[in-house]
Amino acid sequence: MGYESKLTKLPSYQMRSLPLFSIHQYSTSTIPQSSYRSIKSDQHESTNNKKMDLEIISRETIKPSFPTPHRLRTFNFSMIDQIIYDCYTPLVLFLPNNNKATVNDVVTKRSKRLKETLSEILTRFYPVAGEVKDNFHIECNDKGVHFVIARVNQTLEDFLVHPDDQKVRELIPDNFGTLQSSIRNYLAGIQVNIFNCGGIGLCTSLSHKIFDGHTYFMFMKEWAAAVRGSPQTFSPNFMASEVFPNNPSLKYSMPSKLRTTKSLCTKRFLFDSKALDLLKAQLVTSITTSTSLPRHGPTRMEATTTLIWMVAAKAAFTIRPSSPQSPHVLLSIVNLRKRSSPPFPSECIGNLIVHAAGFCFPESQPDLTTLMGQIRKSIAEINSDSTESMRGEKGQEVLSGMLKTLKDMIDGMPEGDCLIATSLLNNGIYEIDFGWGKPMWFYVMNPEFCRFVALNDTIKGGGVEATVTLSFDEMEIFEHDPVILKYATINPSPLQYLHD
């Protein structure tokens, strides 16, 4: 077999326009501290703060079904992999039991099928089963993937009545990838959480050194196809390390202020299609009177990110009135695959992402139109020309300069007021089918950042679910802001998406 059981115990800067991390300066108009060790939901709103009744059934290491050939034993990082944040992103797919298998069948037959097929696809995604060495390559030694099976003494529907962030985090395999975990030497950890109804919470905690969001979705789609017995739809393409070779002389560490040691608060904000239409209409009205904005209407990503950034910046400024030189920064994660010429193949895996960076000065007077315009401009500057500028020795020099500028800027801010934003919209996550029913809900957790927002699709209706992490003080202001209350529902049950 390709997997083996290993039962274990619990164990003062100057800003300029940059081609890759495009940084835009603008003022904003007034509108009406933290550690990943303790990222919690607001306990005043939680209906169930005690730990779940969860029992670990087994812990194993899943290895590729065939040994990785010697010629593939070294997987070189790309330059982007090299400098990407060394963190893990926990994500959970909640799968129903539509064909009403018994819980015993789910524990035995389905979990066995998940393990066997994971072992099979690891032969194609072989770097995932290796170990990071010296930040320049992965040793593809078939170490394997940490794999846990657990029973949850609750039905999936009951769990989804109020799934706050703290509750969902209990589904992470052995705190995998968090600062509390003692097993960070794997690149991936997976926990199959089996509910009393036979539903499954499939939690994957993945190293960002090899997985960006696109890679995750490709991996999960292939795994689901293998479980169904369908033929593989693609072979992973590892060309990124050839296009953007790593550079041992490139030294970069993530600004420490992006990951600190205080408590954080994470909440979900649902923007349904009606609210989004209202928000877009307000922005369209502003666009038609603007001489600088492109005339096309705002996307869901633009509308929600603009609104969240505006209110988050206001909350930070309310708590920490900044000097004229102290901005609030937005780092939007941008997929490079379609922004190069020619585009990278969709099956390219690894980190083909960059940040579009903008900043505002909350002491000025912000408005939605100005903020959205700057988000558009910063992202638009990540194009085929900027992608080309990253290639070769000259590209390494360009990247080095951009990283230094960004790091100096953030390190020079008193509280490191920086919101990292990622959009997982339009990735087809709710079409993934392991053969037991399409997902009821998808949730992405904060990968160790102080201030973070992730945008997800709702299961239907064209809405957006935003998962927002801020300090407790900032969240208290953020969630009570009239603008947020006008457009968003706070911490709704995912079941309402199914019943609408």
Automatic annotation (TrEMBL):
InterPro entries: CAT-like_dom_sf (IPR023213). The keyword 4Fe-4S does not apply. Signal peptide: none annotated. It comes from the Eukaryota. GO terms for molecular function: acyltransferase activity. Keywords: Acyltransferase, Transferase. The keyword Cell membrane does not apply. Belongs to the plant acyltransferase family. This is Transferase, Chloramphenicol acetyltransferase-like domain protein. It comes from Centaurea solstitialis (yellow star-thistle).
